[in-house]
Amino acid sequence: MIVSGTMEQALTPTADPAWLLRETGYELLRESTFETRFAISNGFLGVRGGLATHLGACRAVPPRTYVAGLFDTPTPDSAVPELVPAADWLEVRILLPDGPLMRHPDRASRGLTLDLKRGVLLAESRQTSNAPLDVRVRSLRLVSLDARAVGMQMIELDIETGVSDLTLEATFGPTDFELAPERAELDLRAWRTWRSARSLAIAAAAALQVDGMERQPTERGDLTWSWTWTASPGQVVSFQRIVAVTRHHSLDVHSGSRARKELAAARALGWRGLIARHEAAWAERWRSSDVRIEGDTAAQAALRFAAYHLNGAVNPADPHVSVAARALTGDDYRGHVFWDTEIFLLPFYSLTWPEAARALLMYRFRTLPAARAKAAAMGWRGALYAWESADTGAEVTPEQTVGPDRKILDILCGSQEQHISADVAYGVWQYWQATEDEAFLREAGAEIILETARFWASRAALEPDGLRHIRTVIGPDEYHEGVDDNAYTNGMARWTIARGLEVAALLQERWPETWACLSQRLGLDGPELGQWQEAGRTIATGFDPVTGLFEQFGGFSTLEDVDLKAYAGRSVPMDVVLGRERTQRTQVIKQADVVALLVLLPETFPDGTGVTNFDHYEPRCGHGSSLSRAMHGLAAARLGRAETALRYFHQSAAIDLADTHVAIGGGIHIAALGGLWLTAIFGFAGLSLRPDGVAFDPHLPAAWRSLEFRVQWRGRQLSVTLDQATQGLRVSLESGPPLTVFVGGIKHAVSGAAPLRLEGVGG
User: Fold this and answer.
1) Which residues pair with 754 in a beta bridge?
2) What is the pTM of this model?
3) In this structure, which CATH number among 2.70.98.40, 3.40.1160.10, 1.10.10.10, 3.40.50.1820 belongs to the domain 7-288?
4) Which range is least confidently modeled, 120-134, 267-281, 462-476, 610-624?
5) Confidence grade of residue 252 (pLDDT, cut at 50, 70, 90)
6) 572 Ramachandran zone, left/alpha/beta (phi>0; psi -120 to 50)
7) E strand intervals along 74-194
8) Phi, psi of 457 (to 5 degrees)
9) Nearest of 158, 150, 155, 128 to residue 140 by alpha carbon
10) pLDDT at 2 (0 to 100)
11) How many other C-beta atoms can be found within 10 angstroms of the C-beta atom of residue 505?
């Protein structure tokens, strides 16, 4: 930390290159990719970052700063809210008398460094010698993980040769049309959304020093500053700007007061104090969530990158927002929340940052009324969560889109992709298993599970064959619409009903007063619980005991079987190759479906049939979703196929880290990054949660000499190390009471004074 440090120290990245992501040079066509990859975020503010030097030069892409929860519909007749970009608070122009200083920068000198350890973005460029001044320009930007309303920008100019008048202008870039200006004062601006009754305020302060002496602005306006001086060789110019951003859920004439208060607190700390607290907050996150690998530098880099973005995507203090499909790093999916959060992200938070996990689940609790309304509107009871959710939890999936052939396509996910209600319940239960947060279960979690169980009991219709069927749905495999008895959906529905019954019994036994109040409010009685038991027993499974296969949905096995190996060199998804209509008539799968069920509910697969189903469905998957490879990797690892899992791991990492893979201009694929952590911890380490402890069944890839990580479980902090050479496992209890650890089904007691050390346990 640099409490008493210099700006030179602040602008110098962490010494260990394993913590750094670097790019040099500049290519216009790759700029949007870098803007995504080098984004910084703290769960409230997200700022994209690219290689372009915005010091008076032409911008390659529009600047983007996102504020969590700031939604509006772009036009009066639009039904789909979008995350609204805020004003660009990083705009700086450095001008010579005849134009921008950096109009002829040395492209090779342009560099961008994302310091993952410190959570800062550093940039550097140098002016070429055909200008009046030779200048080295370095900058730092951050959004504070300690005070989430605060962002900071620092720029240092080292004048190497030449003498010239120089002007630095610090302004605020324009907002998009979605925001209407409300106030403009010297230290504050405020805006409002046109239709959603949201307000945004930004307060800011800026300062400039030349050779350590502060200079007063030569011009001053509404959040704008301008300084002019004569630059000369050896001169060092330092610029700092601090902003405080606040979002309000209603229009408020006093909306700027909190922004000013946050700014005053930040200015009192000064830039050194801001950086010190920010770095301390990141150090705490890394202490809890870093994963260390020896033997695979690419995997180490991928997991650090994943954990960086996962840690920066949430705000544990705000239960009104959740993590969008692209987090706060891009415009894709309009900032909407999907099942990605509960299935791919929540395990990371539950086991490394329970406060963040709780906030994400409280978002689902706060949007429970909207889920109830959706179920009722479709003729069912209980709660059906929105497939795409924004701030209110209402269904915001667009009804149509333009396909690859330029035809208008109907989007049916909003009405048919209903497994989301089981996914949310799964996240609630997993959090409960990991934390035993009694207050959450009694105040929110139990109600979510009960209402989603009620939905599935209502949704599954009893038919003359004596079974309950769930018809006309879309499973995770979105290539097939309007199908009956999707294996994933039906399996998760049965599981949710079982958890609903378990929660009801748990409340009655441990907290009868809570049960009495909740059951009365929900109108939930014994006869209805009996109906749930019958529904859970009779929902169709699609399991064939002869083949050992779960049929993906009714009639799937009769569809055309396409050999995907014949299309191995394709660069587009299979539904583009085959066409949408033919794809629906084939067994080509978009993403893990039965395989996902194998990962989440392995106990539903009779002995040996997990392998049978994986081997059957893996070659039929075209991986048309960024979620798919991570799920396949996790399944393969848990089946003991470490090398197959590692191949999927690196393919999933490449989505955001390899320029040759897919365009990521619309934002990082946060669920795929969560999948990397899942593959490492739940897959290779074989971690699973039991009601009476934690269990491990490790299968390390051959190249991984060791794997080390920490997890939290029910108020305990565990440190886990796996060693390839000895097939060894070490579990140390760093804090909390003793616990039970299961390895290969054998029970072991672990306490702070007696860590667990075993050898020969790896598969």
Assistant:
1) 751
2) 0.96
3) 2.70.98.40
4) 120-134
5) low
6) beta
7) 82-86, 92-96, 99-100, 111-115, 120-126, 134-143, 150-161, 164-170, 179-185, 188-193
8) -65, -35
9) 155
10) 43
11) 12
In whole angstroms, what is the distance from residue 67 CA to residue 321 CA? 10
The tokens of 522 are what?
Answer: 């929900």
Q: Which of 53-67, 277-291, 647-661, 663-677 has the lowest mean pLDDT?
A: 53-67
DSSP state of 175: P
Is residue 23 within 8 Å of residue 122, measured between CB atoms?
Answer: no
Q: Using the structure block, give the residue that is written with the tokens 């949905």.
A: 553
Residue 179, pLDDT score: 87
Count H helices and E strands in the chain, helices first. Answer: 22, 34
d(CA 216, CA 583): 66
Domain layout of the chain by residue ranges:
7-288, 290-684
Which uninterrupted H or E stretch holds 200? strand 199-210
Q: Is residue 621 pLDDT above 50, yes or no?
A: yes
Residue-level length of the chain: 763
* 41-50, 68-77, 379-388, 575-584: range with lowest mean pLDDT: 68-77
The CA distance from 364 to 397, in Å, is 17
Helix (H) or strand (E) holding 246: strand 236-248
- The 10s digit of each residue's pLDDT in 650-709 is 999 999 999 765 568 899 999 999 999 999 999 999 999 999 999 999 999 999 999 999
Mean pLDDT score of the chain, rounded to an integer? 93
Q: Which of 609, 688, 677, 614 lies closest to 644, judged by CA?
A: 614
Q: d(Cα 428, Cα 495) in Å, to the nearest integer?
A: 13
Phi, psi for residue 101 in degrees, rounded to 5: -60, -45
Q: What is the CATH code of the structural domain delimited by 290-684?
A: 1.50.10.10
Non-local CB neighbours of 77 within 8 Å, separated by 6+ positions: none
Q: Please tell me the distance from the alpha carbon of residue 386 to that of residue 475, in angstroms, as a whole number.
A: 14
Q: Which residues of 155-192 are buried (b: 16+ CB within 10 A; e: fewer)?
A: bbbebeebebebbbbbbbbebeebbeebeeeebbbbbb
Task: Provide the 3-class DSSP secondary structure of residue 337.
Answer: strand
